[in-house]
Amino acid sequence: xxxxxxxVVIVTGGGHGIGKAYCLGIAxxxxxxxVADIDEEAAHGVAKAIQxxxxxxxxxHVDVANSASCQEMARKTLDAYGKIDGLVNNAAIFMxxxxxxxSFQTITEAEWDRIMAVNVKGLWLCSKAVVPAMQRQKQGSxxxxxxxxxxxxxxxxxxxxTSKAAVVGFSRVLARELGPDNIRVNTLxxxxxxxxxxxxxxxxxxxxxxxxxxxxxxxxxxxxxxxSALYLLSDLSTFxxxxxxxxxxxxxLH
Length: 254
Hints:
Number of helices: 9
CATH superfamily: NAD(P)-binding Rossmann-like Domain
Helix content: 40-55%
CATH architecture: 3-Layer(aba) Sandwich
């Protein structure tokens, strides 16, 4: 069974880490992956890798915090494929674009605003750009990426944790608004995931420490998220909307 045969799916932040894994998985399952990233060179690299392996993909630049850029992403996708079946709102400030750390007293106002512009406003702007195409065809799936940290808190990361908690509320409201159009909206919440290809020694120790707190005691890899994302994007989940799926090896039970 090919889960996404003929479907066109946009993945923001698709040039790196977990986003890259989503794109590769979409292509493996017969879908066309639209690799959208602020790092255009990385996006082209992922798209080329998919094309070289016989899959369908295209790359496009997007700054999710910019409305015109999001609209251009949607337009280019429609020009290339004529439709949009799925959107994975994955782009975020955290790893590939690092977030500053600090207590709630030391986080700067500029850093707070930067996180919210990408991690929260970005979901809204991308959805505004892409959803009208789904509404015209009366079907589609939006997968918004939250985080394990929205459910267990995270010291030194209040701005990030707050932004990822907002993803859950955003998704639930959007699910209710788009239900009449047969468009599903769900949230996927990863745990601490080794999204860098070559993590530093300190980063590796942090991943190992996270692994020790899980029911399944190993480091989470980007590929661990792909199956759940494909399920939510595919016709296997046609009656699933407004839900949150935590993929964290049992670090948090929700």
